Every structure is written in structure tokens, then in C-alpha cells.
Amino acid sequence: MTPAQRFARLVTDVVVRSPRLWGLFRGPLRGQFDRLAPRWDSIRSAGHLGALEAALGALRGPPPRRALDLGTGTGDAAFAIARRFPEAEVTGLDLSGSMVAEARRKTPDDLAPRVRFEAGDAARLPFPDASFELVALSNMIPFFDELARVTAPGGSILVSFSHGPETPIYVSPDRLRRELGRRGFTDFAEIDAGQGTALLARRPGAG
Ligand SMILES: C[S@@+](CC[C@H](N)C(=O)[O-])C[C@H]1O[C@@H](n2cnc3c(N)ncnc32)[C@H](O)[C@@H]1O
């Protein structure tokens, strides 16, 4: 791992255990991803969204009308969600303003009416409770309380990692199940696709 990847792994491990320490890392991590944004698309591996795509295909129930891609980076997972669910309005949110600028610049014309990007912090989301039927994370640190708050009853959470445990930002399925289960999520499903892994969970309720 590069020093930047090691730092991302360290932050993930610390913050998943102690979310209140996130404030120590927010600025440095944002700076790191701001610097990476112009070349982010060129340093990712081919097929990095394989597990996310497979998990989207495994979603059960009515298609989401409102979807959120947290830590969207340059937006590819948001575009994949929008293509999979042609009726969905998709929001991509990222801490890094430079990533958000890249995602906006790349947005295909046909998706522009229903995919939007904004800068923000997943630890304190600027959305009301129960705002989304699908909340997705690709290679992103989960902030479990906020995930649970903004997921609508009957909605789903999708957490994916492009290289499974080798991904710099990675949380084990056991930990994801424990944290999400504690917040009422059920119907867990684990999906492997190539090197990638994903976990789906559902918030009980209408839908
Ligand atoms: C490893 S990149 C993944 C980008 C994209 N999802 C992908 O798979 O290519 C992690 C992204 O999460 C963003 N991020 C990290 N912490 C965040 C937070 N608390 N809130 C919002 N975005 C965050 C970073 O700025 C970065 O763009």
C-alpha cells in the first residue's frame, strides 16, 4: 500500500471503532482526496465496480426512487445506480470538493436531469431522516448512525469494496453485520464478484 492508502486504512479502522474521532481526520483525508481527484479515474483498476454492480442486481423489492452514493468520488457508482434504476433520482455526496467537481464535469447528458452531486460529510448528512430507499458506499468509510437515519423503512444499504480485504478502505462483513444489525437492519446478503465484495442489508418497514 502507498502511504496515502495506509492512512486511509488507519482512518477507517479508527473511525469505525470510535466515530467521535473523525474530526481529527476529516481535514487531512479531505486534502488527500482533493489532491487525488484529477487522476482518480486513471489510478483505479478496471472492474472496480463489479461487486457493486452485482449487489445492485441482487436487490429485492421495489426499485429505489431516491438513492444516495456516499463518498462518490468521481461519481461512477452514482452513474451505475442511475443506469440500473431509470426511475431513480440519485445524489452523490463527497467530502472532497475536487472530487465533486470531477463528478459534475463527467456527468453524461442523459443522466444529468436525475443525478446530482454535492459536497458534504457522511458523518453529518444534510438530509432529513428516511430520505433514501437505497444508500450505497463504494470503498467508503461507513458512519453507521447516519446510514441508519437516512435510510427509509424498507430501504437498503449496499456496502462494497473493489478488492475485498485488500481495499485500503475496508470493513469486514462481520463488523458491518454487527453494526447494522444493532441499528435494526436485517436480510443480510454477501456478494463476491472477482476480487470485490459487497454486503446488502435492509431496514425493516414499508416497501
Ligand atoms: C476511496 S475513495 C472512493 C471513491 C468512489 N466511491 C470509488 O469507489 O471510486 C473514498 C471517497 O470517499 C470520500 N470520503 C471520505 N470520507 C468521507 C466523508 N466523511 N463524507 C463524504 N465523503 C467522504 C473521499 O473524499 C473519497 O472521494
Sum this structure up briefly.
This protein has helices at 3-17, 22-36, 40-43, 50-58, 76-84, 97-106, 144-150, 173-182; strands at 66-70, 89-94, 115-119, 132-138, 151-161, 186-193, 196-202. It contains eight helices and seven strands.
Account of the protein in words:
The chain is an alpha/beta fold. It is built from 8 helices and 7 strands. It has a 7-stranded mixed sheet, sandwiched between helices. α1 (3-17) runs antiparallel to α2 and α4 packs parallel to α5. It is globular and about 45 Å long. The protein starts with a helix and ends in a 5-residue tail after the last strand. The structure holds S-adenosylmethionine (SAM). S-adenosylmethionine is lined by residues 29, 33, 44, 71-73, 77, 93-96, 99, 121-123, 138-141, 169.
Give descriptors for this structure:
207 residues, alpha/beta, seven-stranded mixed sheet, 7 strands, 38% helix, 24% strand, globular, binds S-adenosylmethionine
* Beta-strand proportion: 15-25%
Strands of the widest sheet, in order across it, are: 3-2-1-4-5-7-6
* Helicity range: 25-40%
Radius of gyration: 15 Å
**H-E order:** HHHHEHEHEEHEHEE
The total of beta strands comes to 7
Dominant shape = globular
Derived from helix and strand composition plus strand pairing, the structural class reads alpha/beta
Helix segment tally: 8
What small ligands are held by the chains?
A: S-adenosylmethionine
Largest sheet: 7 strands, mixed
Low-confidence segments, given as residue ranges, are none
User: Termini distance?
Assistant: 42 Å
| Average pLDDT rating | 96
